[in-house]
Amino acid sequence: MRILVYPHDLGIGGSQINAIELAGAVDRLGHETIVFGRPGPLVDSIRRLGLEFVAAPEAGRRPSVAVSRALAGLVERRRIDILHGYEWPPSLECYLAARRMPHAAAVSTVMSMAVAPFIPKHVPLTVGTHQIAEVESGFGRSAVTVLEPPVDVDANRPGLDLAQGDLRKTWGVPEGAYIVAIVSRLARELKLEGILSAMDAVASLPATMRVCLLIAGDGPARTEVAARAAQVNIRTGRQTVVLTGELADPRAAYDVGDVCLGMGGSALRALAFGKPLVVQGEAGFWELLTPSSLDTFLWQGWYGVGSGQAGGASALRQVLFEILPAERLRADLGAFGRRVVVHRYSLAHAAEAQLDIYGAALETASASRMAYARELEAAGHFLRYKRRRLQARLTGRATADDFNARPVAAGQPLQAFSAGGAT
What we know:
Elements: E1 2-6, H1 14-28, E2 32-37, H2 43-48, E3 52-55, H3 65-78, E4 82-86, H4 88-98, E5 105-110, E6 125-127, H5 130-138, E7 144-146, H6 164-171, E8 178-183, H7 192-203, E9 211-216, H8 222-236, E10 241-245, H9 251-256, E11 259-262, H10 264-272, E12 277-280, E13 286-288, H11 294-300, H12 312-323, H13 327-344, H14 347-368, H15 372-394
Parallel strand pairs: 1-2, 1-4, 2-3, 4-5, 5-6, 6-7, 8-9, 8-11, 9-10, 11-12
Antiparallel strand pairs: 12-13
């Protein structure tokens, strides 16, 4: 097959890293794979994997007619079979490019915490959690697959030489301190609340414990994060919080941590390094991964919604207070997390599953091209979405990551779900 993979952007982030790593794994299985998108920091990663990169035109409003035309031209010139869009704007642009091409099929992957209703229901859809898949099947989607965020368990593992000492020296990480590590985009939606409460939690631990919170990442909430970090460091009189900014290769940040905090793909990479993990969510959600809590995350994803933001820092403080001094417990939980990732989230397994999704999409492409009623329904959802966005901007209530701002997990009860021997 000839496959075009189109991440929603090429800045550092979980969805786009997953897209690129999975594209590389599919390419290694013998399928010609192109990555399409606006140039960004991850272009270097694309080229390191030996993949061809094709720059997209400026998008402007999304979905973009110019981008869809560029995609359609590539499909014709290169005889591309699959256009794979990640998140809703690329998904729609791939669909518009493929809908009149008799030999090509569009597929969509959404790793946000909710799916845009204006992705047409007949487009093959991949999501990252069983909870979201159940909701989308109930919404009437005809082809929904769960493909949990994959991890390259060879490139992310204990024992690698990642210049960990240089990281400590460059950023002034205190010697002899317990390190609590976060690798995260500094986004206001989904991320900021937890990052701020993590600072408060670490600052409230006894000074005799000597704990340092290492935060690797950048983004639109950088100013708020830096301001709170400065306040905490002044209050504690030491380097309690260390901000590195965005790291081209953040693996050393995971590896130096005694405990990692995170959600989604970042949480899974922490587990791949054999680190105890406290899963970050919203509304005060913090939960230590243990054999008894695993089923929760296998159902709803590596994220959660608590009962209220106010108690988040104290809940995390209690977890850290108990686990940081317990070296044996940390080692046992780290080994457990590594087994979970290797068993369920390996990149090799995900590549094989992705190829099955592509094959099924090609088999059903001809029939789906006639689904005009579903296209009209999707267009109606899109127009309502744009109207709501305009109203929100006019009233000062707009959000940047709007489908992460309305996560499925916030409104769905926990279902019984088996780990299937992952322990």
